[in-house]
Write a structure and sequence with these properties.
The chain is an alpha/beta fold. The protein is built from 5 helices and 15 strands. It has 2 domains: about 200 residues, Rossmann fold (3-Layer(aba) Sandwich); about 80 residues, Formyl transferase, C-terminal domain (Methionyl-tRNA Fmet Formyltransferase, Chain A, domain 2, Roll). The chain is about 20% helix and about 25% strand. The strands form 3 sheets. Strands 1, 2, 3, 4, 5, 6, 8 and 9 form an 8-stranded mixed sheet that branches. A 5-stranded antiparallel sheet has the order 11-12-15-14-13. Strand 3, helix 2 and strand 4 form a beta-alpha-beta unit. The longest helix is centred in the middle third of the chain and has 24 residues. The termini are far apart. This is Methionyl-tRNA formyltransferase.
């Protein structure tokens, strides 16, 4: 077996979770090493659209374990020219001179949910099985041949932060397997079944808005899917935009004239509110004002979203 030199291009929550699982997790090997490999470079960049920027944690892990760090803007091809493998997780920028050394880690079980934010989409859809796929990049969007996968079963009420944390371990387990196979000279990829492909669209700030005409179960999944580390689901209350952090489904009431978004009653001295949905009802358990302070609901006769 030949020891491999590995570069890690990691960014965002997914990249930080992979790096933490590799070097600070319960199965972490000696500092700076996979089994049969040495990590000699970590590259990253600042991330937007999150409640915090994981780059600082990535840099701190590198400092603590003596790993060479390069910011994306300073990265040169000569920095990783000697790498036998280049593993990418959470990386959203094109790189020059992609070759067979590059392995992309995508947080879905391809060919299901190619594209953007697949785990968010999976939670919104109510999928109970998510995972990670490692593949060789080609000209398409997540269409390259697959080196391996790691599946993960999740709870019906799982929230995106805990799923990403669990996926960090799945990323790490899969990365170790692939590095070991590469060291043994047995790393091979299998073409995807393109006829079975599904896709996940990109998301922006507009896509955080709650549609109260949806069923309560769908809205609850949506709130959980875009919660921390994302900015959180949003709606309007008394003319101002607020963020909804946590909700729960409650027994429905029979409204012959159903008007989704209307508050039915307040709970917990204004800490929560029961809201009529297109189907079913939700109790808001935690919400934030525009300046990120905990919101107390003080007015009953309000229709959320207006």
């Amino acid at each position: 077996m030949t020891e491999r030199r590995v570069s890690l291009f990691v960014a965002g929550t997914k990249g930080a979770n992979l790096l933490r699982a590799l070097f600070d997790g319960p199965d972490a090997p000696a500092p700076g090493f996979f089994p049969l490999a040495q990590v000699h470079l970590v590259a990253s960049y600042s991330s937007s659209g999150l409640s915090h920027d994981p780059r600082a944690e990535i840099m701190e892990i590198c400092r603590r374990h003596g790993l060479l760090y390069r910011d994306r803007h300073e990265l040169k091809t000569t920095d990783y020219a000697a790498s036998d493998l280049v593993l990418l997780a959470g990386w959203q920028y094109l790189l020059p001179d992609i070759d067979d050394r590059f392995i992309v880690f995508h947080d879905s079980l391809l060919p299901h949910l190619r594209g953007f934010n697949p785990t968010v989409t999976a939670l919104i859809l109510g999928d109970r099985r998510v995972g990670v796929t490692a593949f060789r990049p080609d000209e398409g969007v997540d269409t390259g041949p697959v080196y391996g996968q790691e599946a993960l079963a999740i709870r019906e009420t799982a929230r995106i932060g805990e799923v990403y944390e669990a996926l960090g371990g799945a990323y790490a387990r899969l990365a170790r397997r692939l590095v070991e196979r590469a060291a043994m000279g047995s790393l091979a990829a299998t073409p995807q079944d393109h006829s079975a492909a599904t896709y996940s669209l990109w998301r922006n700030e507009d896509d955080y808005t709650i549609d109260w005409t949806r069923a309560a179960s769908a809205i609850r999944r949506f709130v959980d899917a875009v919660s921390w580390p994302y900015l959180g689901a949003k709606t309007r209350y008394r003319g101002a935009e607020i963020r909804i952090d946590r909700v729960m489904e409650i027994p429905d009431l029979r409204f012959p004239l159903r008007q989704p978004g209307k508050i039915w009653t307040l709970s917990g001295n204004g800490e929560g509110a029961d809201v009529v949905c297109g189907e079913g009802m939700l109790r808001i358990l935690a919400a934030r004002t525009p300046d990120a302070q905990p919101l107390r609901f003080t007015s009953l006769r309000q229709r959320l979203g207006e």
